[in-house]
Amino acid sequence: MGSVLTNSTNSFTRLRDPSARMHAYAAVLFLVSAGLFLALVEAGYRLGNLWVVAALVVVAAVAEQASVRLGSRHDAEVSISGLPLLFAAVLYGPLAAMVVYGASMIGDFRNGSNEPRLKWAVYTCVRSITGAVTGLVAVHVLRLTSSQLGAVFLATCLAALVSELLDLGFAALTYRLRGGLDARQVLGAIVPTAMASLPLCVPVVALLAYAAEQVSIWILPVFFLPALAAQRLFVLYQEQTELAEELSSVNARLEQANLSFATALVTTLDARDQYTAGHSAAVAIYAQDIAARMGLSETEQQLAHVAGLVHDIGKIGLPPGLLEKPGAYTLEERRSMERHSEIGERILAKVEDYSEIAAIVRHHHERFDGNGYPDGISGDAIPLISRIIAVADAYNAMTSDRPYREAMPTRVARLRLAQAVETQFDTSVVAAFEAILAGASESYRLGTRVDFQFDGQAQVLEPEAPVFTPEVLVPRVAVRSVSA
Q: With b meaning 16 or more CB within 10 Å and e meaning fewer, what string describes 38-65?
């Protein structure tokens, strides 16, 4: 007696394991589907035209392998594999429908681990049972009315409805046995898609079955081949769309990584000279806004922002004490200070993908008339973003307090910029910046707005929260799960 209780307890414990439940579930499904097959053969049902049934199997299997995902994050797929099922059910009856729908999963059979085989077994048996019941409904409805077209339409409609209900029921039960969400959650996720397919597939299949019976069976390729091609084209379009979205996401993250790297560089400079870090943050915003005002692309605006952040990074390589000196520089000290743009270029040129920024940094102290440094180039030979940073840099320097002088009023700084066009600055850049300043708040003009703080430039995009989507098993025109 004790051994019996022990064995019963062990069996119950094993069935609490999802894997054990699924194996038992697969065994029950196999027995039911095998029993249905034998019962249908014993009742006198036949496959019908073997060539047509074989063709329908191929169409269903190909459609299933080229199924369309319901969104890039979803574990559910749609296909036209339910159309051959309904056609076989209405035209040839339950045995043909059972074979067509069950065999549609043949492409999912894979050697290897037990899990793919278990998934294939569950899907195949579920579809076989669904096909058999769908075919029985269609056959019995066809016997109830004398109107040929009306009978075909009614049989298709009821068969499709029964098929959908069975699919949804098996989906909920399968997911429940796997230890997932309850039936209401699964059905709530897939019912809308499943039911939406009925108004689309019923008229098509009904007309197709009627035409095949009354006109010619060769009408089938005229419909199914374009349908498969359309599904395949949609899959390709979806893959291309998802690839473009992924590429866009990667580019956005790369841009954010560039910004994070730039702020990390300026943070090291901040340890020596806090003015330079805050100044760089302001120049970055001014440069980006000027680039936008001048109609530059989003990429160029971002480039202006990052280059503005690191334009003074070369100062980290200056002799000790030079940055911290409170008074005016000697001639030798000024020459040393002027080397910071070349040092900055050498630092940034060693960073992958920073070659363009390195060139911009090198030339941000060139003058429009050719009297700047380090190369003495002039006019359009100076990179446009270097010319933009030159204006933003000079303006913020003039409107900021320094140890050896007080900040200029913004109106004076703007006047100085206007006086230096065509000599020190590019006229078009100064005009764009003046248009911005004319309509800006005083906090923007002074660079004291919250977003001008250096810490505000170091924000890194948070990764997107994962979106949970329930896996589902609906093997019809509606949906089915990618994993078992």
A: eebeeeebebeeeebbebbbbbbbbbbe
Residue 20: what residue type?
A: A
Residue type, 213: E
What are all long-range contacts of 284-288, with beta carbons under 8 Å and residues at least 24 apart?
284/308, 284/309, 284/457, 285/447, 285/451, 285/452, 286/391, 286/392, 286/395, 286/396, 286/433, 286/447, 287/385, 287/388, 287/389, 287/392
Three-state SS at 76: strand
Contact 137, 90 (CB under 8 A): no
Work out the pLDDT band at 418, boundaries 50, 70, 90. Answer: very high
Per-residue DSSP letters for 132-154?
HHHHHHHHHHHTS-S-HHHHHHH
- The structure tokens listed for 6 are 């022990």
User: Stretch 251-271: mean pLDDT, rounded?
Assistant: 62
Confidence (pLDDT) at 272: 59
Q: Which residue has the higher pLDDT, 10 or 150?
A: 150
Angle between helices 18-42 and 114-142 (to 10 degrees): 40
DSSP string, 407-424: PPPHHHHHHHHHHTBTTT
Nearest CA-CA partner of 72 in 228, 245, 254, 251 = 245
Whole-angstrom distance, CA of residue 91 vs CA of residue 30: 26
Look at residue 474 and tell me whether its pLDDT is greater than 50. Answer: no
Bridge-based pairing state of the strands 480-481 and 76-78: antiparallel
pLDDT computed for residue 459 by the predictor: 44
Beta bridge partners of 481: 76
Please, what is the Cα angle at 391 between 385 and 393, to 5 degrees?
Answer: 95
Tell me what pLDDT residue 62 has: 73
- Cβ-contact 304, 389 below 8 angstroms: yes
Q: What is the DSSP string of 419-458?
A: HTBTTTB-HHHHHHHHHHHHTS-HHHHHT-SGGGSGGGGG
- Asked if 64 and 107 count as a contact pair (C-beta separation under 8 A), the reply is yes
As a whole-number percent, the residues of the chain with pLDDT over 90 amount to 22
- Answer whether 157's CB lies under 8 Å from 206's CB: yes
Q: Is 77 helix (H, G, I), strand (E, B) or coil?
A: strand
Contact at 8 Å (CB) between 348 and 383?
no
**Which residues, other chains included, contact 101 with Cβ-Cβ below 8 Å and sequence gap of 6+?**
60, 81, 84, 85, 88, 127, 128, 130, 131, 134, 475
User: Which residues have a Cβ under 8 Å from the Cβ of 330 and sit 6 or more positions away?
Assistant: none
482 vs 165, more confident:
165
Residue 481 phi, psi dihedral angles, 5° rounding: -85, 155
CB 210 within 8 A of CB 87: no
In the predicted model, what is the mean pLDDT of the chain? Answer: 74
